[in-house]
Every structure is written in C-alpha cells, then in structure tokens.
Specification:
single chain; about 120 residues; mainly alpha; 5 helices; rod-shaped
Length: about 120
C-alpha cells in the first residue's frame, strides 16, 4: 500500500509542478499581450500608423507631391520675380498659374519619376 501512495503522491507533485510552469508561461504571455494592447492605444502610435496608411495611398502621394511642388514653385517665383512692383506681381501670378497647371496635370508622372529616381538611388 505504501508504494502505491508514494507513486500517487509523486504523480501529484509532478502535476503540480507542470501546472506551476504552465501558470508562469500563461502569465508571461498575458503580460506580453497586455503590453502590446497598451502600445496600440498610444495616441502617438495611432497617429503614426494612420499616417503610414495615408501616405501609402497613391492618390494622397500625388496630392502631396502637387502641394509640395506648388509651394516650392511659389517660393522660387517670389524670390526670382518678386512682388514689389506691378510688373513683378503680374509676372509672378502668370508664372504661378502656369506652373500650378503643369504640376496638377502631370502630378502622376512627377510621382512616378520621383519613385523611379528613389528606387535607383536605393539600389546603388
């Protein structure tokens, strides 16, 4: 009888040890899951993830390129032609309208060109 009880007792201890190990494993997994969950609720992470998704959209890329090129063009027009005189103002407005029209009509091509140049630079 004693041998049988010892055997059952040893099995019980082994089972307790297995359950403790499983408990620690599950607690670690729960802690990791909780940390991931709290990280996804971080406002900075949400904004960053949203911006990444937004920038991956081709239409948004085209719009961003158009806006950026228009800003750069307007900056250079202002610097080169100036708006201090009537002649300078009229010529800068004319050049601005032409450049804006060209940029907006060819935005997809400009994005494609920039992407091509970017991939060429990355392969070097």
């Amino acid at each position: 009888m004693e041998n049988k009880e010892i055997s059952v007792h040893n099995k019980l201890l082994l089972h307790i040890n297995r359950l403790k190990a499983e408990k620690f494993e599950l607690e670690d997994e729960l802690e990791h899951t909780f940390k991931e969950f709290t990280y996804t609720l971080d406002p900075f992470f949400i904004a960053k993830k949203s911006l990444h998704k937004l920038v991956e959209d081709k239409e948004v890329q085209t719009d961003l390129v158009s806006v950026g090129l228009n800003l750069i063009t307007n900056f250079f027009i202002e610097r080169i032609l100036g708006r201090q005189t009537v002649k300078g103002y009229l010529s800068s407005v004319l050049v601005e309208k032409i450049s804006t029209s060209l940029i907006n009509n060819n935005a997809a091509g400009i994005v494609s060109l920039i992407s091509t140049l970017q991939t060429k630079n990355q392969t070097k």
